[in-house]
Specification:
Radius of gyration: 22 Å
Number of helices: 2
Number of strands: 8
Largest sheet: 8 strands, antiparallel
Order of helices and strands: HEEEEHEEEE
Distance between the termini: 72 Å
Length: 159
């Protein structure tokens, strides 16, 4: 009887240890995955006649330019990622798709980062409808700020 209790107790302890190991291992794997991606998150803040899109990156980036300049259904933002480590340099040459968040002002069909087989990396936003926009460097040098507004809007959109 005593032997059975010790064995059950050891089995219970082993099960708890295995469960904890799996839980910690899963969290570590998720952290590794998100850290190895170029895009971190996309946040859209709706205003009365416009939306401000903040595209955050997992490594420093420098905004270079964008095309077209003021309006269109597709916006391409050219970047100069600042890769310091070998791991970051491998990240830069990836291609990633980011699921667009919801917004009442702007409907984004796709957000794509393209770093593979290109002269310089770029971010593409495909809008469901033609939009006016402006683009600037984020203050943290890990983001790009895109102000988007409807073509019929009278005023611009300040971030």
């Amino acid at each position: 009887m005593i032997m059975m209790t010790i064995t059950e107790s050891k089995a219970h302890a082993v099960l708890i240890a295995a469960f904890l190991w799996l839980a910690i291992g899963t969290q570590f794997a998720q952290a590794q995955t998100s850290r190895n991606e170029v895009l971190d998150e996309v946040v859209i803040v709706d205003r009365s006649e416009c939306a401000v899109i903040r595209v955050k990156f997992n490594l420093p980036v420098k905004y270079k330019n964008h095309f077209p300049e003021t309006a269109g259904k597709e916006l391409r933002v050219y970047l100069a990622p600042v890769a310091v480590t070998a791991e970051e340099r491998q990240q830069v040459v990836r291609s990633e798709y980011f699921s667009p968040p919801d917004s009442d002002i702007v409907e984004i069909a796709e957000i794509i980062y393209e770093g593979r087989d290109v002269v310089e990396p770029y971010l593409t936003l495909l809008f469901a409808h033609p939009m006016k926009f402006s683009v600037k460097q984020g203050d943290d040098f890990r983001s790009v700020i895109i102000s988007v507004y409807l073509p019929e809007a009278k005023n611009g959109c300040m971030p």
